[in-house]
Amino acid sequence: MTYREEIMDVVRELVRDRPDREFTLDELIAALNDRGSACKTQTVKTYVAGILCQQAPVMYRKRHPTLERVGRGRYRLA
After folding, report:
1. Number of structural domains found in the chain
2. Domain named DUF7669: which ranges (predicted)?
């Protein structure tokens, strides 16, 4: 499983019962740590804020814009 797949699995778990489909970066990092993930905090931040975020500047060759930034440290599954 890639980091992207692991992060998105946890995001889907976090927002499953939330009508607004929102989560915080801190919630995501805590959930990944609870799972025993090898994904480091900085890697999670890079994926969420850069590779997975729709509003991120195009800095990465591969992007998967599946998250929307709705506030500081707050994201929504698009």
Report:
1. 1
2. 7-77
Q: Percentage of the chain with pLDDT > 90?
A: 77
User: Is residue 61 scored above 80 in pLDDT?
Assistant: no
Residue 23 burial (10 A CB sphere; 0-12, 13-18, 19+): buried
Which residue in the block uniquely carries the two structure tokens 């500047």?
Answer: 57
Enclosing domain of residue 20: 3-77
Give dist(CA 39, CA 70) in Å, integer: 24
Of 69, 6, 15, 64, the residue nearest 34 (C-alpha)? 6
Contact call for residues 67 and 52 (beta carbons, < 8 A)? yes
| Whole-number Å distance between alpha carbons of 1 and 15 | 20
| Paired strand residues for 67 | 53, 77
pLDDT in tens, 41-60: 999 999 999 889 988 777 76
